[in-house]
Amino acid sequence: MSACAELFIALLESQNFHYASRIDDDGDVVVDFPYKGKTFKCFFSGEGGTYLSLYCVYENIPEDKLVDVIFLCNELNTKYKWITFYVDHDRDMMLHDDAILATENAAQETMELLARCINIGEEIKPLVMKAIYA
After folding, report:
1. Where are the beta strands (DSSP E) in 61-126?
2. What is the pLDDT of residues 46-58, one digit of tens each?
3. Given Cys at both, which of 37, 39, 43, 110 links 53, Cβ 3.0 to 4.6 Å?
């Protein structure tokens, strides 16, 4: 397991957070972090796991609301600089962030980025629900 992933997992365990971890087919360490019915996936790849990608399937978008949500993603991408928003080929609205980690502070950096993604996800929820259900 990569050093950065091990450090992050140790931090999660020290704080008694619920999580699941595994190694995917590419050899990347994936840490699943559940929060309020959604799962944030932290992929640690590269040498020592220093390349971090965070993903969250935020909401599945009905076909008739796809254009509205794509426009919303564009607006959100101009407002929030820490993460990106897009609709994938399965019509899932995604929250995404990438970072290069240093082993010295990998756990804290990953937790900071994860917390930012979660907080932004909470902040945008009314806008997303309005775009889908209005």
Report:
1. 84-87, 92-100
2. 988 999 999 999 9
3. 43
